[in-house]
C-alpha cells in the first residue's frame, strides 16, 4: 500500500486495537501511517464528533473496532444498550467513511452473533439464518447490521466496506473486570486473587461449554492482512480450527497452570453457562492463508498471564 495510506483504527485502545498497535510497532516498517483512537478522541455514537475526527485524521483506510463489548454476564444485563449504542457507532463510522471517501473499511462482527439453532460448523453464509442466542441478542443484531450496511454501501456506491468475524479473543490489555469481562480475563483475575489470598478459585457455570479462542496478537496479524489484501465484501471468519475448540474447564485449567495455582477449584453452577457452543469453520481463511501459524493456546495463555502479573496495578479490572 502506498506511503500516502492513513489507517485509522477506531477502538484503538482496547484489547484488539492494542494488539494491532503492538504488531504494527514490532513488525517491519509498515508502508502506512497508523492512527489509534480511543473514545476520548471522539464519542463515535455522536455523528458530529465522528465527522470531526474524520475531518482531522482524513483516513484512507479504517479498521473499525469501536463498540460496547463484554462477556456473557454484561450482555445478559444490557441487551438494549448494546444494541442502541453499537448501532449508532456503526452507522456513524460507515456514513463518515463514505462521506470522506475512505477506500476501505474493515469492521468487526463476532462468532457469537450466528443463529443459536444451527448446524455445525458455522460458516460465513449463515449469519442471518435465524435468531442469535438470547443472552446477547442486542449485541448480535447490531453486529449483523454492519453486514447489511456493508452490502448497502457496496450496492449504492461500490464501497469497499467489509468485515471480519473473530471468535472469542484474549490477550494483554484485555478487560479483566469480573462482571463485565470475557471468560479468559475473568478467570485470570480470579486466579491472581485466589493465589494472592489463599482462597478457592471459582469457575462460573458447569465448565462444559465449548469455545474457540484466538490470541489477540494472532487476530491482529490477520486483520492487518485483511486490511491490505482481502477484496471481498462478504465477511471472513478469523478463528482457530474446529479441532482447537476447548471446554471452559480446559481453558480454566490452562490458566491455573500458567499461575502455578495449587489451591482448591470450585464450580459455581448457579451462574449461567450461556451458549453451549458456536463452533465456527475457518475453511475460508485457510483457503487464503493455508500456512498461517496460530500461537499454541497454552503459550498464549502464559504470555497473557505474565502480562497481567506484570501490569496488575494498571490493567482494566
Ligand atoms: P474493548 O477492549 O472493550 O475496546 C473497545 C474499544 O472501543 C475501546 O478502544 C473503546 O475506547 C472504544 N469505544 C467504546 N465506545 C466508544 C464510543 N462511544 N466512541 C468511541 N470509541 C468507543 O473491545 P475489544 O475486545 O478490543 O473489541 C474490539 C472489537 O472486536 C469490537 O468490535 C468487538 O465487538 C469485536 N470482537 C471482540 C471479541 C472479544 O472476545 N473481545 C470477539 C469478537 C469480536 P475507550 O478505551 O476510550 O473506552
Ligand atoms: O467470554 P464469555 O463471558 O462469553 O464466556 P461467551 C462465558 C462462559 O464462560 C460461560 C463461563 O459458560 C460462563 O459460565 N465462565 C466461567 C465465565 N467462569 C467465568 C468468568 O469468570 N467470567 C465469565 N465471563 N465467564 C460472549 C458474548 O459469549 O462472547 C459476547 O456474549 C461476545 O457478545 C463474546 O461476543 C465474544 O463466549 O459466552
From TrEMBL:
Write down the EC number: 1.1.1.271
Superkingdom of this protein's organism: Eukaryota
* UniProt keyword annotations, A-Z: Isomerase, NADP, Oxidoreductase
Please verify whether the record's keywords include Oxidoreductase: yes
Give, as in the UniProt entry, the pathway in which the protein acts: Nucleotide-sugar biosynthesis; GDP-L-fucose biosynthesis via de novo pathway; GDP-L-fucose from GDP-alpha-D-mannose: step 2/2
Q: Which Gene3D superfamilies match?
A: NAD(P)-binding Rossmann-like Domain, UDP-galactose 4-epimerase, domain 1
Domain NAD-dependent epimerase/dehydratase per the UniProt entry, residue ranges = 7-238
One Pfam family matching this protein: Epimerase
What does the record give under GO molecular function? Answer: GDP-L-fucose synthase activity; isomerase activity
Q: Does the keyword Transit peptide apply?
A: no
Q: Which family does it belong to?
A: Belongs to the NAD(P)-dependent epimerase/dehydratase family. Fucose synthase subfamily.
Provide the function of this protein. Catalyzes the two-step NADP-dependent conversion of GDP-4-dehydro-6-deoxy-D-mannose to GDP-fucose, involving an epimerase and a reductase reaction.
Q: State the name under which the record lists this protein.
A: GDP-L-fucose synthase
Organism per entry: Dreissena polymorpha (Zebra mussel)
Amino acid at each position: 500500500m502506498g506511503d500516502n495510506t492513513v489507517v485509522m483504527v477506531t477502538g484503538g485502545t482496547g484489547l484488539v486495537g492494542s494488539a494491532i498497535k503492538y504488531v504494527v510497532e514490532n513488525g517491519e516498517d509498515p508502508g502506512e501511517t497508523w492512527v489509534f483512537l480511543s473514545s476520548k478522541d471522539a464519542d463515535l455514537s455522536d455523528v458530529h464528533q465522528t465527522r470531526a475526527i474524520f475531518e482531522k485524521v482524513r483516513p484512507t483506510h479504517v479498521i473499525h473496532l469501536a463498540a460496547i463489548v463484554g462477556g456473557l454476564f454484561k450482555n445478559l444485563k444490557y441487551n438494549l444498550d448494546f444494541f442502541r449504542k453499537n448501532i449508532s457507532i456503526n452507522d456513524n463510522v460507515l456514513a463518515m467513511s463514505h462521506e470522506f471517501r475512505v477506500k476501505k473499511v474493515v469492521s468487526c462482527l463476532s462468532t457469537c452473533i450466528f443463529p443459536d439453532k444451527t448446524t455445525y460448523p458455522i460458516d460465513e453464509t449463515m449469519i442471518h439464518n435465524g435468531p442469535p442466542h438470547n443472552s446477547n441478542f442486542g449485541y448480535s443484531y447490531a453486529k449483523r447490521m454492519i453486514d447489511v450496511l456493508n452490502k448497502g454501501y457496496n450496492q449504492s456506491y461500490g464501497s469497499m466496506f467489509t468485515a471480519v468475524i473473530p471468535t472469542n479473543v484474549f490477550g494483554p490489555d484485555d478487560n479483566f473486570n469480573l462482571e463485565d469481562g470475557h471468560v479468559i480475563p475473568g478467570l485470570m483475575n480470579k486466579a491472581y486473587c485466589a493465589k494472592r489470598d489463599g482462597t478457592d478459585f471459582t469457575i462460573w457455570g458447569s465448565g462444559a461449554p465449548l469455545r474457540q479462542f484466538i490470541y489477540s496478537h494472532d487476530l491482529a496479524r490477520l486483520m492487518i492482512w485483511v486490511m491490505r489484501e482481502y477484496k471481498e465484501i462478504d465477511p471472513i471468519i478469523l478463528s482457530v480450527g474446529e479441532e482447537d475448540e476447548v471446554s471452559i474447564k480446559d481453558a480454566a485449567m490452562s490458566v491455573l497452570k500458567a499461575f502455578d495455582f495449587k489451591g482448591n477449584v470450585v464450580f459455581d453452577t448457579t451462574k449461567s453457562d450461556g451458549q453451549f457452543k458456536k463452533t465456527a469453520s475457518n475453511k475460508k481463511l485457510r483457503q487464503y492463508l493455508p500456512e498461517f501459524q496460530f500461537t499454541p493456546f497454552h503459550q498464549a495463555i502464559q504470555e497473557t498471564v505474565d502480562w497481567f502479573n506484570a501490569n496488575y496495578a494498571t490493567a482494566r479490572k
